Amino acid sequence: MGAWWVALLATLGALFVGEVMGQAPCELCWYQRIAMFPLAWILGVAAFRGTGGYNWYALPLAAAGAGIAAFHSLIYFEILPETIHRCGAGPSCTDDAMVLFGVAPLPLLSLAAFVIIIALLALSSRKTP
């Protein structure tokens, strides 16, 4: 249930940033959305049905999203050069638009959400006999 709340909050946050704040997602943000949005549905259905086995679907998505978010964070913080990945015709993966409310870098928030989801899924799989 906790992983679903994190995925739902992250999905609604991404929609808020894009649709309400009018900020277009960069290419790496789109890939992270591709991993996060289905997690909100998969984990939501699993939470309300009370069925197990969803980790087979959710963990690979969360791990892929975490990998992309980690890569995006390394580029954002200039640990990796931006030339390693060009964001194409959309917004830049590293400019000031990647900061929410002036303090929270979006790639880092995304990475935190994926890591929390992975941790909660790992904990729930340990409880399941």
UniProtKB/TrEMBL annotation:
Keywords attached to this entry: Chaperone, Disulfide bond, Electron transport, Membrane, Oxidoreductase, Redox-active center, Transmembrane, Transmembrane helix, Transport
Subcellular location: Membrane
Any matching Pfam family: DsbB
Membrane is among the record's keywords: yes
Record-annotated membrane-spanning stretches: 32-49, 56-77, 97-123
InterPro entries: DiS_bond_form_DsbB/BdbC, Disulphide_bond_form_BdbC, DsbB-like_sf
Chief localisation class: membrane
The UniProt record lists the keyword Nucleotidyltransferase: no
Organism superkingdom: Bacteria
Membrane disposition: Multi-pass membrane protein
Family membership: Belongs to the DsbB family. BdbC subfamily.
Name of the protein this chain belongs to: Disulfide bond formation protein C
Gene source species: Devosia yakushimensis
Gene name linked to the record: bdbC
